[in-house]
Input
Amino acid sequence: MTRGFVLAGLVISGASYFLYMSALAQGQNAGQAPRAPGTNMSVAYPARPKAPQEVLDRGKSVYGVHCAFCHGSDAAGGEAGPNLLRSTVVLEDQDGELIMPIVHGARVDNGMPQIPIEDAQVKDIAAWLHSLRVESRTDPNAEKINILIGDARAGEAYFQKTCAGCHSVTGDLKDFGAKFPDPKTLQQTWLLPGGGGGRRRSGPTPGIQVPPTTVTVTQANGQMVEGELSSIDDFAVSLVEPDGTYRTFARNGDQPAVELHDPLALHRKLFKTYQDKDIHDLTAYLTTIK
Output
């Protein structure tokens, strides 16, 4: 692993699309979302009967502890997770039945960690999500939710087992808790150093250094061109050479040969293994590093 702060990183892309496909796969006959009159289209933001306030309060609280660090305290997208207010499955869902499989691990292989909460709690979260409206933004009360529910000693043991091979609380992570006194900011930072993801792409996070992703392009004549990756898809790869020269190469199958050097690659892989408890325990431990 590359030195420097690269504990974990993930852009959970396409999650809303997966939710939509899950909804289709499970069928809509047992509980369709309201349809626009005279059409077969879902109402964009269907009006729903308001759940009892105690249900909404429970759902908001559970969401704040287990979900807000990825999807934002207002469910409009966070540093790692997508906007849930615009998720087709959240709109199609009636009582948590489409959200539940994802919470319980259906997307672990795609970077969505399993969250060990009860079905009743998922239903409470669903009720709270259904009560939100697109125009609603950051809730001024959301910051009062305490996410420091983990065991710092268990977090230290997890750090020593999983992270200490590359990171040191007396070296690259020295005073980490002091640099990020807000637990939510600290948690989002170690989950996704350098920003990027759901709602926006931010620049480098102050207080940490994440090397950029670089790429080596080997042309048919054997000439190699290296630089910082700008963009890549099936048709082209673009990079910026050390002298600032911007270059784009057309791709045709495996030509030219392209080799990516992503300093967060191992951490993206690690993200798939996190349990919810691991995240809370490690956050609790890192807040003590001052």
